[in-house]
């Protein structure tokens, strides 16, 4: 799949437009300033002329503003370059297996997950919630950090309808829940794109996450 690197992003086009506009405004304002200064000098009272230091002060103030705008232009260009570099590096993630806390776009296929086992836990459960936060399934899972498969099938044998689901893992000690944390979901990176100022990844099931949310990468099939 081709990634969105060949054309500038909307944010980059906006920054370029802003830079061009700023440069145009500075040029126009400087010409206007010189015209006003020349007119002021031509029409000053010969009996009470303006001190040369005042002219120098005005020129210095305008020059300082111009330099600040040019510095901002350089910073914007540097930022755009760093973003492009980041896109190029993260673009190599396409086709790799990423591990992150993210929702699952379930369509009937099994999904590989993992949970963090608490040292005091004697059992673990997978909690499946819909987008509204309602719990739909509570499933026993191996007392381990190792990956396992979730098929969408509940303890009653029924399979969830296609949709977005949020998965978490609860650690229990007897009848006391020690902690609940989001499950780690494994998926293949399909696309890399710039969204605003941040790089986002599109996964194979259509879910999109910030690249900064990825906690692990690997090659080959999902564990």
Quick description:
This protein is α+β, with helices and mostly antiparallel strands.
SSE layout:
Blueprint lengths: L9 H33 L9 H39 L6 E4 L3 E3 L4 E4 L8 E7 L5 E7 L6 E3 L12 E11 L2 E7 L1 E12 L2 E6 L4 E3 L3 E5 L5
Antiparallel strand pairs: 1-9, 1-12, 2-7, 3-6, 3-9, 4-5, 4-7, 7-8, 9-10, 10-11
Tally of separate helices = 2
Give the N-to-C terminal Cα separation: 23 Å
The share of residues in extended strands comes to: 25-35%
Structural class: alpha+beta
Q: What's the story with the biggest beta sheet?
A: 7 strands, antiparallel
Apparent shape: rod-shaped
The total tally of domains equals: 3
What does this structure look like?
By secondary structure, this protein is α+β, with helices and mostly antiparallel strands. It folds into three domains: 10-92; 94-98 and 187-218, no CATH class; 104-185, Immunoglobulin-like, CATH 2.60.40.4070. The chain has two helices and twelve strands, in the order ααββββββββββββ. The protein has helices at residues 10-42, 52-90, and strands at 97-100, 104-106, 111-114, 123-129, 135-141, 148-150, 163-173, 176-182, 184-195, 198-203, 208-210, 214-218. The longest helix has 39 residues, at 52-90. The radius of gyration is 30 Å and the shape is rod-shaped. 12% of the residues are buried. The model is unreliable at 1-16 (pLDDT under 50).
């Amino acid at each position: 799949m081709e990634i969105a690197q060949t054309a500038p992003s909307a944010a980059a086009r906006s920054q370029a437009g802003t830079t061009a506009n700023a440069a145009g405004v500075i040029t126009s304002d400087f010409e206007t300033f010189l015209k006003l200064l020349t007119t002021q000098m031509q029409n000053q009272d010969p009996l009470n002329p303006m001190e040369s230091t005042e002219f120098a002060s005005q020129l210095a103030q305008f020059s300082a503003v111009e330099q600040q705008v040019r510095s901002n232009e350089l910073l914007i260009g540097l930022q755009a370059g760093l973003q492009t570099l980041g896109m190029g590096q993260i673009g190599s993630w396409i086709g790799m297996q990423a591990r992150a806390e993210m929702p699952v776009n379930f369509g009937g296929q099994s999904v590989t997950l993992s949970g963090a086992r608490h040292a005091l836990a004697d059992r673990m459960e997978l909690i499946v919630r819909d987008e509204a936060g309602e719990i739909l399934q509570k499933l026993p899972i191996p007392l381990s950090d190792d990956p396992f498969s979730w098929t969408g099938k509940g303890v009653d044998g029924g399979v969830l309808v296609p949709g977005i689901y949020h998965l978490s893992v609860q650690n229990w000690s007897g009848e006391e829940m020690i902690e609940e944390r989001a499950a780690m979901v494994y998926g293949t990176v399909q696309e890399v794109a710039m969204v605003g100022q941040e790089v986002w990844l599109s996964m194979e099931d259509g879910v999109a996450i910030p690249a900064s949310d990825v906690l692990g990468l690997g090659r080959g099939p999902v564990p």
